Amino acid sequence: MKVLVINAGSSSLKYQLIDMEDESVKAKGLCERIGISGSKLTHKVPGLDDYVVEEDMPTHQKAIELVLAALVDKDHGVVASVDEIDAVGHRVLHGGPTYTGSIKVNDDVKRVIRECFDLGPLHNPANLMGIEACEAAMPGKANVAVFDTSFGMGLEPYAYRYAIPEEYYEKYSIRRYGFHGTSHMFVSGEMIRFANLPEGHQKVIVCHLGNGSSISASISGKAVDTSMGLTPLEGLVMGTRSGDLDPAVVQFICDHENISVDEMLTILNKKSGVYALSGNLSSDFRDLSSAAESGNEKAQLALDAFAHKVVKTIGGYLGVLNGADAIAFTGGIGENDTAMRAKIMKHFEYAGIKLDPERNKVRGKASKISTDDSTVGVYVLPTNEELAIARETVRLA
Ligand code: ADP
Predict the structure, then answer these.
(1) Where in the chain is the domain with CATH 3.30.420.40?
(2) How confident is the model at residue 121 (pLDDT cuts 50, 70, 90)?
(3) 286 C-alpha vs ligand 1 centroid, how far in Å?
(4) Sequence-ordered alpha helix ranges (H) in the chain
(5) Using a 6 Å CB cutoff, which residues line ligand 1?
(6) Which CATH superfamily includes the segment(s) 199-380?
């Protein structure tokens, strides 16, 4: 069975064609500048040179048509015809309070995705365009929606409710949803398999640390807590997102700078985080680490503040879970930043959780990084959201 995985953004569309026999990626690629001049498709097939198509893509529909043409192209294609694609899996940001899991797309599902436009204004409209483009280009094929919020829908009310008047929850479904759900679902499941955690000992903390960062606590793959909230702005200090802050900060700055709440939210999403703390130096941890090593105090502050919040969150989740059976690091920083992992985990030596400095040199590869006598196993486990979406698609299609 071959599954096409689609991640549609407002002006971009990423795809992978995965052969589910061996879960191998047959081809993957990216359409850029959809709806803007200078659109481009870059199609990658393992072992072949990149195939670049520079052709106008005024709509997502056109982008999907070019993707399908590339997949069947006689020189760069990987299937003889579109009929070989059995189903399509779509990443969808927000499923609102309706969906606790992935679902095969029908008119009702599309209505809910549309109703969630105000909860995911940047992503949901694009996600729906991706689905409708596939429906038009491949009529009759199953489309499956995999929501970034469904993992967080497993939380209990005491974890997902904000302590604000009930009417806002009742009227607008204002609650914590959590994001990176597909990654947390995938990595918590892989963690159980990789470490062979037996039933009754499957309490896992997943640290997804990348440009956007979040941490989840789960038991046997079911979420118990997760650090993002109504939107991905809550929780950890991130690349350009502030993470948690006192809401009064918003009012204060809006009043004193005479800006709107909308403008303030853009600042909190795009101009804050380690980027802001480093004095607008960079949101990339490689830049921050090398600047800090050369004595840049602001870069050091950014790294310290990031680690501090991660430590507080892991510490909190160790309490929430009443002890963990495994801690997994994933995402660009989690998989690669060996110094950051050591800096974070140093704080848990009091509890007998210890990294092995040699093992902790690993980058981007599933591996145990704690000592054999560590009270909790600590691991690096690369995330693979596309594969998680493809597996969900097989399950439902
Ligand atoms: P996204 O949230 O956009 O998917 P990623 O998970 O790809 O982000 O993470 C991107 C971040 O990972 C980069 O901004 C960079 O800070 C960090 N990163 C990637 N490789 C390394 C590395 N070798 N050392 C330190 N940080 C790294």
Answers:
(1) 2-147, 199-380
(2) confident
(3) 8
(4) 60-72, 107-115, 124-137, 157-160, 166-172, 181-194, 248-257, 261-270, 273-277, 285-293, 297-320, 331-336, 338-345, 385-396
(5) 210-212, 239, 284-286, 331-333, 336-337
(6) ATPase, nucleotide binding domain (3.30.420.40)
